[in-house]
Amino acid sequence: MTATAETTKFMRASDARADGAVREVGFARGEILIRRRVHGIEMKLGVPAPNYKGVVLALLATDSGQSFYRVSLAHRDPDLSVTLHEAHDDSDIVAEWKFWAKRFGLPKFIEREPGRLEGAEKMLGAVTLGRREGLRRRGAALSKRRPRAPLRRKTGDAAIAAQIFPGRR
User: Fold this and answer.
1) Measured distance CA(50)–CA(8) in Å, rounded
2) Residue ranges covered by each domain of the chain
3) Per residue in 43-63, pLDDT tens?
C-alpha cells in the first residue's frame, strides 16, 4: 500500500465475501486500492493497473427483468475485479467505458455472455493493433520561438574589438 492511499477517495462497493458484504475501492496513480474486512481481519491491497485484463462493458439483467449497463475492470481473480460504473440508460456509458480504458491504459472489452470477453479493438495477443492516439506534447505552441539565450547576449563594440585585434576586420 502506498502513501497515496491516505489521500485517495474511496467508494463503497458490494463484496459477497467481505464482512457486511461491503468493500472500499479507490484509484491512485496507476493502481487500484481495495480495502475490505474478512472474518474480522482488515485487508488492504494495491493492485497495479497493468495486472488487469481490461475495461469491460456489459449489458446485464436484474431479477425483475430490467436491464442495466456495467463498466468494470476485469482481473483473472474475480475477487479483484472492480465495478467502475453502472447505469440504466446508455447515454453516457460508452464515454465512461472509454474514459476508464484511457485512464488506466487498458484494452476495451465487451461481455456479450457472462464470462466471455470480446475485444472491442483489433488485438494481437495483449497488443492493440491500429492507429494509436498521439501523445500530447506540452509547449508545442512555443516550439516555433527562438531560444532566449541569444536574445540576452549583448552585441560587441567595434571600437573595443579594433583595439584588441588591430588590423583585423
Assistant:
1) 19
2) 1-51, 52-123
3) 998 999 999 999 999 988 878
